[in-house]
Amino acid sequence: MSVGERAPALAGFYQAYLIDQNTAVFVKAVSRRYNCGTLERLASHARREVRRAAALAIGFIGDYDSNAALGRCLVDEDRAVRTIAENGIRSLWRRVGTSPQRQQLAALVRLNTSQRYREAVDAATELIKRLPSLAEAWNQRAIAHYNLGHYQDSIRDCHETLELNPYHFDAATGLGQCHLQMHDQMGALESFRRALRLNPGLEGVRTGIEYLERALKKKSGS
Predict the structure, then answer these.
(1) Is there a contact between 174 and 180 (Cβ–Cβ < 8 Å)?
(2) Model confidence at 7: pLDDT above 60
């Protein structure tokens, strides 16, 4: 069965979801009919409602292997597709590794959320030793370093995050924030521009770019 033949069913599941907002029913229906590879192909379908449905489904049932497909949805011409992709892609970033490693990552995120940054640095370092390819562990350590005022360390971890996951707009934004703290407006501007290229929906970043462009123009006297 071709992608074109499968599309109407997925669109129908999506329309039903919009009405009843029942995630479990949507996930069950999609899982019975589609695999992630097919959903990734449908994420570039000509019909926007199909792309919306595919992006939503990937966010619910995909894992890190679908990161590139959902990352491309961040720059879709349809705003709803972009929004759905942004809401789902962060979950994909945490669906990697073994079950114990995912649990470690979840605990690490909670440490940062609870502002236990020194513990978060230690936990992230331990997880990185075990799984150095886990981009989100590097990102979480970057967050902890930033909040501890260790901006150079945070910058290094943000760069490593982006090396491993080139769609990680949060890491690019974090780079910009670090450069701002170090009074490097040009470095901040370049990082924020990178983040916005990855995710045009970052309105706060867009505002920051406009401010920095004005500030640098004023500084140059032009």
Answers:
(1) no
(2) no
Taking a C-beta distance cutoff of 8 angstroms, is the pair 58, 43 a contact? yes
**What whole-number distance in Å separates Cα of residue 108 and Cα of residue 120?**
6
Long-range contacts of 203-207, Cβ-Cβ distance < 8 Å, separation of 24 or more: 205/173, 205/176
pLDDT at 1: 39
Q: In 10 A of CB 106, how many CB atoms?
A: 10
> Which amino acid is residue 24, in one-letter code?
A
Q: What are the start-end ranges of the H helices in 34-98?
A: 36-42, 48-61, 67-73, 79-93
Q: Is 122 exposed, middle or buried (0-12, 13-18, 19+ CB in 10 A)?
A: middle
Quickly tell me which residue has 């497909």 as its tokens: 69
Residue 64, C-beta contacts closer than 8 angstroms, at least 6 positions apart = 92, 93, 95, 96
Per DSSP, which regions of 67-220 are E strands?
none
Pair of tokens at residue 130: 């075990």
Quote the radius of gyration of the chain (alpha carbons, Å): 19
pLDDT in tens, 197-222: 999 999 999 999 999 999 998 887 75
Q: What is the mean pLDDT of the chain?
A: 94
**What is the spatial distance between Cα 222 and Cα 218, in angstroms, rounded to a whole number?**
6
Write out pLDDT tens, residues 15-49.
999 999 999 999 999 999 999 999 999 999 999 99
